[in-house]
Every structure is written in structure tokens, then in C-alpha cells.
Amino acid sequence: MRSTPLVLVTAVAASFALVGCSSSDTGSGSGSSAGASSAPATFDPSTIAKDDAIAALLPAKITSAGALIVGSDTTYAPAEFIAEDGSTPVGYDVDLAKALGAVLGVKVEVQTATFASIIPAIGSKYDIGVSSFTINPDREKQVNMISYFSAGEAYAVQAGNPNKVDAKDICGLTVGVQTGTVEDEELDAASATCVSDGKKAITPLKYDHQSDVTTALVGGKVDLMYADSPIIAYAIAQTSGQLEQLGDVFATAPQGVVVSKDDAALTGAIQKALQKLIDSGDYAKVLTAWGNEAGAVTKVELNPAVS
């Protein structure tokens, strides 16, 4: 997703509901369950058998608890969000986390958290983080990152681009972004470049939840939305033509499952379980069900070299 990660809203019937769900006009919103969608959970973990050899790699504390606690910002459809019932996490990241649990022979408990709070709590509150974390050098200094998906970044505007936004020059615009994401960090840097080039600074509107960013764009509070490419595509689909992508996908990068650097055993178990899911074809089934097979990888890597 995301920067400190880098790819909503409900279907349009509820989408206006969405404007009312935005927490403030300042971009400091605490968010709500506005990330819900009518899409059902699509994965049955009982279809995947436990791999005893991989499960044996788990730390004793997880084996004895019989559960893997996963931190996830469930406002980032279609990767992780809350279903219409208002409580059930769904999405391709959620399904992949459940698939990991099936291979490892443990239950998976996905706990909702604000995005920027997940990494600091890995190894204490959460066993792993699965929340569209873009792999970058800063993050790899803090935690182990196991690659499992590839996503780019993209822009979205209101349909028809009424403000005539140029994807090659966003200086002077009001841009919506989720706090703590790669896009958040990059937007600050882009604004500084605008100023150094003698142009107007970018005015960022930063929200804790991606659903509120989408709402801001639909409602005209921002000129442009900046997010991961899967999230942009899903926002466009779920708002029934009220938004459109501006320009091409760019800055493609791997995303990773986050594990504590102090937990080599869990890191190894997760890496092997992910590769098992890829090799068995179950990984592809999950991504295809959510329309995100374009982001599939064939091999997982631990802390891959990235720029």
C-alpha cells in the first residue's frame, strides 16, 4: 500500500453514505467502516492441507496458541477491508493470510489497525503484518519483509478529469493520500521539488483510511488521489464510473509480509508457506478471485534488494 509503507468505498448505492463518513475536512480523519464492500469472502481455507514439515518450523508460542495474529489496515480494498456485516475482514491479503494459516495448521486472526501502527507492533501485538506493505530499504531495517505481490502506483481523478489535471505536473494541486504510505512520503518529496523548481507546492490532504481518500476525491475535496494501482483500479470499479485513472501505472515494486527481525523461526515458516501456496496454485486462485492476478509473483524472497 503502502509506504511506511504504498494499492474503499462501497458500491455506489452506499457511496453517498461515503461523503458522510469522511471524518473531517482537514485530512486528519479517524475513518470509519466506510471501507466496506459488497464483495463476499472468496476463500475457504479448509481446501488447503496442513504441511507438517513447514508447520514444524513455527515458534512454540504460536503452535501452542494455535493462532497467528495478523495486523492489517482493513480500509484498503480489494487487498484488505471490512465486509458488509461491518466486522469481517475480507480481501486478497486476508485470503492469503488464511491460506498461510492453513498450511501452518493454525487459525488466523486478522486484527484491524491503523496502517502506520502495524510495523511498530510486530513481534509484540501482532505475529505478522499483511497489509500491502511496499518493500523499501527503510522498512527492511525495521522488520523482515517476505515478498509476495507486485504493485505499482497510480493517480485517479473524477471522471472526465474536470480539473484538467496533468499527470506529468501535479504541482499546485490538492492531492489525497493515506497517511503512512509510500505515496504519503513521496508526495512530501514531490511538493518540495515543486517549490525548488519555482512552482506552487502541492497541498496534501492526508487521511488515516484509504476509504476516506476515495470519498474526498468523489466529493471534490481533492483534485487527485494517489495510491497503489490495485486500490486505484478497485476504487474506479466500486464508484461505478465516477472516477478514472490518470496516466499509466508507475513505480512498480514488491509488497511483503512483515515479520519481526528477532523471529527467524517464524520468518522461515512464513517464507516456506508462501512459496508452497505459489507452487500449489492456491495463491493464483486467491488473486484471480479478486481480479489481481496481474500482481502475482512466482518466487518469494526475504528482504529483496530494492531501491
Structure description:
This protein is α/β, with parallel strands linked by helices and 307 residues long. It has two domains: 15-151 and 254-295, D-Maltodextrin-Binding Protein, domain 2; 153-251, Periplasmic binding protein-like II (D-Maltodextrin-Binding Protein, domain 2, 3-Layer(aba) Sandwich). Helices cover 32% and strands 24% of the residues. It contains eleven helices and eleven strands. An eight-stranded mixed sheet has the order 5-1-6-11-7-10-8-9, with helices on both faces. It has a three-stranded antiparallel sheet with strand order 2-3-4, covered by helices on one side. The radius of gyration is 19 Å and the shape is globular. The relative contact order is 0.22. Residues 4-41 have low confidence and may be disordered.
Task: Tell me the layout of helices and strands.
Blueprint: H1 15-21, H2 52-55, H3 60-65, E1 67-72, E2 75-76, E3 80-82, E4 89-90, H4 92-104, E5 107-112, H5 115-118, E6 128-134, H6 137-142, E7 144-158, E8 174-178, H7 182-196, E9 203-207, H8 210-218, E10 224-228, H9 229-238, E11 243-259, H10 264-280, H11 282-289
Helix pairs in contact: 1-8, 4-10, 4-11
CATH architecture of the largest domain: 3-Layer(aba) Sandwich
| Structural class computed from helices and strand pairing | alpha/beta
Distance linking N and C termini: 17 Å
CATH homologous superfamily heading of the largest domain: Periplasmic binding protein-like II
Any idea of the CATH class of the largest domain? Alpha Beta
Give the integer mean of the pLDDT values: 87
Strand content: 15-25%
Here the CATH topology of the largest domain equals: D-Maltodextrin-Binding Protein, domain 2
Low-confidence parts, pLDDT < 50 over ≥5 residues? Answer: 4-41
The succession of helices and strands, N to C, reads: HHHEEEEHEHEHEEHEHEHEHH
User: Total helix count?
Assistant: 11
Q: What overall form do the CA principal axes indicate?
A: globular
Assembly state: single chain
Number of domain modules: 2
Radius of gyration: 19 Å
Report the strand count.
Answer: 11
Helix share, percent = 25-40%
Q: What profile does the largest beta sheet have? A: 8 strands, mixed
Lateral strand order in the biggest sheet: 5-1-6-11-7-10-8-9
